[in-house]
Fold these 2 entries.
Entry 1:
Amino acid sequence: AQRVTQPEKLLSVFKGAPVELKCNYSYSGSPELFWYVQYSRQRLQLLLRHISRESIKGFTADLNKGETSFHLKKPFAQEEDSAMYYCALRGPGDQGGKLIFGQGTELSVKP
Amino acid sequence: GAGVSQSPSNKVTEKGKDVELRCDPISGHTALYWYRQRLGQGLEFLIYFQGNSAPDKSGLPSDRFSAERTGESVSTLTIQRTQQEDSAVYLCASSERSTSYTFGSGTRLTVV
């Protein structure tokens, strides 16, 4: 079964500290992996996707197929990074298909 | 429109009543998705429309839930005989084929 697991409900760090939000997935095949972010009082929005292999707002995520993980990392957290972060998976298909989301991790960056 | 629009933004209803939630996707987006987000929980997939194909209803929690979409435009999610456990934020998203989603701001449903 397709499943996305984010083991931490809340992650609290100090400004300038490194941050890693964990995401593990279960899928037989080659899924697409995404990170979505929801800032306070804003809509859920795409942060990055693994096929783009880009860095957005200093965040990166590497797909590790051996460990079935897609952890989100940033070397120096900023207060404006405080938000809810959701890892999501989509199976390959001829019509895109639905995203399966994890439970989300709330990141709190303290001054 | 410029983004995905959902209405109403808030809805309070009495247990047992029916409710209808509306989603206007981005023009030209062929795919439309409904998700439910209960307090403190992740996004739960409900239903997915892609063009003229049969919708993927695999996430609908019971037969009290149904959704319609007219062509590639507006969608309505209907919940009949609402229960307190239906209280949640209902999110709609749209996308072009195989691209990332654009989410609406959601409808917060409270069943009292």
Entry 2:
Amino acid sequence: LAKTTQPISMDSYEGQEVNITCSHNNIATNDYITWYQQFPSQGPRFIIQGYKTKVTNEVASLFIPADRKSSTLSLPRVSLSDTAVYYCLVGDHEVTGGGNKLTFGTGTQLKVEL
Amino acid sequence: DVKVTQSSRYLVKRTGEKVFLECVQDMDHENMFWYRQDPGLGLRLIYFSYDVKMKEKGDIPEGYSVSREKKERFSLILESASTNQTSMYLCASSLGEYDTGELFFGEGSRLTVL
């Protein structure tokens, strides 16, 4: 079972780039890495997903080194509205029948200030 | 867009009551999940289902059961509610066999057990 470890919290200022690193030493060959964002009183929402190297979309970039034992979510030029909890999720394919047992860590609380 | 709907945003129940939390998704997803979220503990997986009438235990199944009679509906059941089940409950769904981990969450159901 691939577990993830993230910093509990991070602080930043508007306009800065924020990098949140997730450790997943036991990642399996077929696992993908997915990041979610959660605002208070809402369910998490998908931000970005990758398997290796670098992935970029309109919201963030995801950097994954060759050994895939960690990943870094990069948020360019954050604003106050990026204040949220960010979760790193590694897909677990242990379950038979095609289903995935997807487990979350405790997440990183990002606080962005003026 | 995928829509995951949880039947109740807020519920207040008494100890010993039977509680049903309903979740419906409208995108023909194979997989459905129930999580609970508590401060400092992140999201913890209770049960999940990868097909109709199929279910698998997550990390904290004790005190809960589930039902999936139809593909679009996944119910979480607390047979005899206890105060330590006061929590935010989140339902999610994902595509299916070639799932790469993208989960779609509902808004959550906040349950208080008195």
